[in-house]
Structure formats: structure tokens, C-alpha cells
DNA sequence: GTCTGACTTGTAAACGATTACAAGAACGAT
DNA sequence: ATCGTTCTTGTAATCGTTTACAAGTCAGAC
């Protein structure tokens, strides 16, 4: 026998479907009637169909979180925070992954119109007009965890990358480092461009010149290693000149990385060349993800407030679901520095 | 104006709703009619409602992957593999997280009856009769990535932990290590108990006795560190006796860990005590997750085939959706060893 | 010109829930 | 006894699709 429907329950209990629905939704009913319904429900193992319910009531009680790369530990921090807020509000959280291309993100946002969920938190890697348009026109509330132009007219909660960069640079200065290199992710991404700008400003404010700057292919560990090779030179530090010549250390004494995965990749390349962290080269990551704490040496990292951003994003989403007419809010979360052993 | 429905499109195109539906689903229609429909769809920005559609056709074209802890990198490996297979088959993958308690898992499986998705891949941490019952009775196909008894009558794909443990022990032996300790996760979990058993067998087969065995509170990095403290002694290696006395190294020369997070935690504790990896103590992890490659030193890890398990699980799920009457299959994926610098 | 068959399109009944509305029951006040 | 309230329960419409079935159109064969 296939899944029982509310009609079968009603028949079994000898009442109407309306009564079953009422009992199940806690509307007033006599105790005797409620008891009969409950017994029938129990007996048949009835579970209401969410599709039918949401078709009727127009809500799914599900929210979606879309991230670009599940392998990036910054998203687990964010995910945990979002999960906590939305589940406390009685929603299920489902996570989907978009991939790095903006067309996938657009497709996802457009797809929300199909009614999969009551709202979306999206953390887009790349933003273009299409994406902004799709977000504006989306039938369900969307909040962006990241930076999109104000004209998008959408709730956002973003990090303060320039401020974060400043924290990083000043921390290195305080540690006596002045020959600072920068490893960024792709500059055609939202975080990539923000961090490039932030780095330039922070260096300028401190009258420093970067001793190296490379752009990794993406925000992954592998790209970090490749960037490290580029930054440190493929062959300059090979066996026989294992970092003990002046050329090895004179060039740079600190590296700031656009995220923790890149930083860990860089540390591996430094290690491969016999350069000690932090003795010879200090390394700073960004995101302060779980990886920062797990890496060795533990990574000093700019905490861009992923957890708080996740929390605030979830709260904005819930508030907008509550009241769609409220003016869009743009929240900026301030960074802090988590100092560990890599500097 | 609220979301357009198929009826509005039909009116705009001057045709019936049935025709709109047919055109949208690629059923035969005259070119003229198709063109009018497409134009109306375009103009109104119509997107079919997935809830209504799936209510009617009884399928959602969504599949769910449920994992216990998004912070565990083994799941990202698995997630990627599952995603690839199901999206190639035209399904959306949504990921939910259950938490460590079996009651949450049971609730999730029961909840599938609400029709959120057409199938479920679940990787349960803890299994009890309730969970097995809920899986057996689940209205949508379920495949378990992990070990459940055959009587559950469900498709499973699991790792071969004992074989993996054997690989680990024999590798250490080949490296001349004989004083092996074991850091497990909770033994009331599926992987915990499998690995405990595997470790015992592997040690016995090689006529070795464990020099230490501790059970971490869970499979996380923090628990790994705590376990390291317990294993190595809170105070025995403090400053002043930094691993240079015989007591420090004589006790153990290798640690096998039940997963990579625990292994990295252990390496941190070893580092804190000045014990060099691998020179003084070799460390082996399990899962061969991205973290193994990222850790420093890179972690030798038993590859329990997470990617392949994910792939096979997804394939089993698709096959069962295709044909629910096929006999349950129980696939075992064989482990390999990824040797890196920690041993 | 009629009939057959193939093909196109429309009408209306599902899918499984919620809920507006109506009807009936119970009860106290007059 | 009658009336009006209030409370409980049932009937049926509805959400937005898909699809079985019916009806209509058209071409070709006789």
C-alpha cells in the first residue's frame, strides 16, 4: 500500500479531512475527536506531504544556503551560524553548491522561483549585472553574504576587507616585518577585488611597497601552492640553496594571503624551500576558519566575521520573509585579528 | 503582480493550459503554437512551480545527502562525488546536516516521507534499531554510506576499515615502528567501532601490542587534541623535559588515528611537546581527506575510498529510484594507503 | 462526398493538503 | 418552548501543475 493520505486517515478515524487537518495543526477540537485522529495517524504511519502543504499555504519552511565551494572551510563556519539561526526559527536549512561560475549562480537564483524554498542566502564569488538582475527579480527573499552594489537594492552583509588588510599589515609591522608580499585569489571575484584594493590601501597608508604580488587561479589549497611557486621562484630554493643564502630571505619576510587555504598552500611551499615560519617568513591568512587553527604552525588569520556574517544574513532573511516591504539593509561586519604562531 | 501561473501564460498566448504544459515539456505541438507559448513565457517571466509539479508527478528531482558534521573534510570529498553523479543524472543535490545524535537522523529519515526529495544518501554516525526501522519503512529510496546490518535490507556502500587498519599497521612496521598507539573516535559510533575492531585484528595479526589507546569524544580536531593530551600525558612533556628524555620517546613511536581531524589534533599535541613527526613519532590518519594533504607535515592517511563510496552510493540510489524491486546491494570499497611525510 | 486515421488542441479531473463557509449541536437566557 | 450564541464538524473550493479523455481538424482513400 502506498503512502497514506489525509483522506485515508479521515476514513480510518471516521471523521472528515478537515478535522484531521485541524487536529494536526493544533486547532481547537474535542479531545475525543483528537484522540481518534491521533490513533489513526499513528496506526497508518501518516506523515503530511510537504509538497501539497506548501502548494496550498505558499510556504515550504525551507531556506537555502548557496555556496561556491564546499571545500572552502570558511563556508563551514558560515553554514553553522546560518543553520543555528534558521533552525531556531523553525526552518530547515538546505545547502546547495553553485560552482565558481556566475552563470550557475544566476541559474540558481532564477530557479528559486520554482518554489524550492522560502528564501536564499547566497555568497556569490563573481557578480555581474545578470546576477544582480536575477536577485532583484527573484520571487523569494534573497540576502547576499558578500558585496554587491547598493543599487541592487538587496539585503547584504559583508566583510570589511580593507580594514582587515590594515589589521594584517599593521600586525606585521609591529612584528618588525616590512618586506611584505601578497597572495590574492582571482581579482575578478568579489573577495579578490576587495582584498586587492584593501591591500593596496593598507600598504600605502603605512608607506610600504609590496615585494611581491601574485594572483592565484582560485581560492584553493592547490592554487595556493602554485602561487607559492610563482612567488618564491620554482628553482631558486632547490636543494643545495635551501633558504640559507641571503637571496632566500632578503626578498620577503611576510606573506599576506587572501584566505586560509591559500595561506596554508604558501606555508607548504615555504616549508619545501626550508624557509621557517614565522622565523624567516611570517604568514597571515584570512577568514580565520577552522583550518587556521588546524594548520601547522597555527595560522594567524584575519577574522572577517564569517560566523557573524552568517548569523546576521540569516536574521536579515528571516526579517524580510516576515516583512517584504522593509528597506534593504546593508550590514558591514568588522574584522578582528586572531593571532597565532605563524607570525 | 504576483508570480505568473500557467493559466496566465495560457491566457496571454491564447491557448489552453494543457498546451502550455505540453510545449514546456517538449511534447509534440505545431511550431506556431510553440512559438506563441514561448513568447508568452518569455514575456511574463514564467517559471513553473516545482511544488505543484512534483505534487502531480510524484517526483521532485531533488536528492538529499545527509551528513553528521559539515566540518569534517571527509564529507566534502564524498559530497563532491555524489554531486557529480546525481547532477549528471538531472537531479539537484541538497545537503542537510543531522548532528551527531541518532534521534536527529531518525527524524530526518522519517521526514523524507514529507516528500522533500526523491531519495536520500545518509552517512550515519550512530545506528540503532529505530534508525534501521525508519530506513526500512522510508517511503523514498535510501542508501546508507556506512555500515548497517544486512537485515536492514537496504543498499549500502561501506569502507573496509579492518583492511585499512592492516595497511596502516603494516606500513608502520615496514618503517620500523612497533610501539603503536591508537586514537579512536567514540566507539559507540559506526566508524568508531569498526576501527576499534580493525585495529585490534591488525595488531594481533602482526603480533603487536598497542602501547596506548584512547577514545576521543568525537571525530573533531578539538577532540583530537584532547585525546593527545590524554595519550601523551598532560604534564609529562612540559618545558624542561621536552621530549628528549627516554620516557618521552620510548613509550610510543607511532600513532594511528581514526580520521584525519584526530590525526592533525594529535600532531599538534606532539608538536607542543617537541616531538618531531615523523622522526620521533609517525602519525597515520584515515579518510585521506583534503586536510591530509594540507596538514603539515602532510599526513599519511588510509584512503577509505570516500570519493568512490560517494559515487557508488549515488549510483545505487539512482538505480533504486529506477527500479525499487531490485535486491539490496552491499558494496564494499577497498582502501588504499596514501603515503605522505608524516610516516 | 463520406469515411478513416492521424494529429492537434481543449476540457476537466486528478495530486494532497488547507481553509472559508455552512450546517448542526449544545446550552443558557428569556 | 423559543431564540440566539458559541462551539464543533463537515462540505467543497483552492493552490498550480500534469494528463486522460474527448473533440475537433485535416488529408487522403474510396
From TrEMBL, chains A, B:
Which PANTHER family does its entry note? HTH-TYPE TRANSCRIPTIONAL REGULATOR GALS, LACI-RELATED TRANSCRIPTIONAL REPRESSOR
Q: What is an example of a GO molecular function annotated in this UniProt entry?
A: DNA-binding transcription factor activity
Which SMART domains does the record match to this protein? HTH_LACI
**Limits of the HTH lacI-type domain:** 4-57
Per its UniProt record, what InterPro entries does this chain match? Answer: HTH_LacI, LacI/GalR-like_sensor, Lambda_DNA-bd_dom_sf, Peripla_BP_I
Keywords, A to Z, come to: DNA-binding, Transcription, Transcription regulation
Q: Which PROSITE patterns match?
A: HTH_LACI_2
Q: What is this protein called?
A: LacI family transcriptional regulator
Amino acid at each position: 500500500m502506498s503512502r497514506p493520505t489525509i483522506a485515508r486517515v479521515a476514513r480510518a478515524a471516521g471523521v472528515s479531512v478537515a478535522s484531521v487537518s485541524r487536529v494536526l495543526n493544533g486547532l481547537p477540537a474535542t479531545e475525543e475527536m483528537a484522540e481518534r485522529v491521533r490513533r489513526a495517524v499513528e496506526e497508518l504511519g501518516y506523515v503530511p506531504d510537504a509538497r501539497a502543504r506548501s502548494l496550498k499555504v505558499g510556504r515550504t519552511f525551507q531556506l537555502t544556503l548557496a555556496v561556491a565551494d564546499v571545500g572552502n572551510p570558511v563556508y563551514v563556519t558560515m553554514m553553522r551560524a546560518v543553520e543555528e539561526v534558521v533552525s531556531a526559527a523553525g526552518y530547515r536549512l538546505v545547502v546547495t553548491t553553485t560552482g565558481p561560475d556566475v552563470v550557475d549562480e544566476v541559474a540558481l537564483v532564477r530557479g528559486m522561483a520554482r518554489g524550492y524554498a522560502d528564501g536564499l542566502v547566497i555568497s556569490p564569488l563573481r557578480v555581474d549585472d545578470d546576477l544582480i538582475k536575477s536577485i532583484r527579480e527573484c520571487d523569494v527573499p534573497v540576502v547576499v553574504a558578500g558585496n554587491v552594489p547598493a543599487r541592487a537594492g538587496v539585503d547584504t552583509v559583508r566583510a570589511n576587507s580593507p580594514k582587515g588588510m590594515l589589521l594584517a599589515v599593521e600586525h606585521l609591522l609591529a612584528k618588525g616585518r616590512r618586506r611584505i608580499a601578497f597572495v590574492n585569489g582571482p581579482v575578478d571575484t568579489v573577495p579578490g577585488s576587495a582584498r586587492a584594493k584593501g591591500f593596496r590601501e593598507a600598504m600605502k597608508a603605512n608607506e610600504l611597497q609590496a615585494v611581491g604580488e601574485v594572483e592565484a587561479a582560485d581560492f584553493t589549497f592547490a592554487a595556493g601552492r602554485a602561487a607559492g611557486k610563482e612567488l618564491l621562484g620554482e628553482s631558486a630554493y632547490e636543494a643545495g640553496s635551501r633558504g640559507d643564502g641571503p637571496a632566500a630571505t632578503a626578498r620577503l619576510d611576510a606573506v599576506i594571503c587572501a584566505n586560509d587555504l591559500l595561506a596554508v598552500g604558501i606555508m607548504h611551499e615555504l616549508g619545501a624551500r626550508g624557509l621557517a615560519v614565522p622565523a624567516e617568513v611570517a604568514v597571515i591568512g584570512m577568514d580565520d576558519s577552522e583550518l587556521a587553527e588546524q594548520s601547522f604552525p597555527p595560522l594567524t588569520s584575519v577574522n572577517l566575521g564569517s560566523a557573524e556574517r552568517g548569523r546576521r544574513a540569516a536574521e536579515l532573511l528571516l526579517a524580510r520573509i516576515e516583512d517584504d516591504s522593509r528597506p534593504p539593509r546593508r550590514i558591514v561586519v568588522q574584522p578582528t585579528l586572531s593571532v597565532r604562531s605563524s607570525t
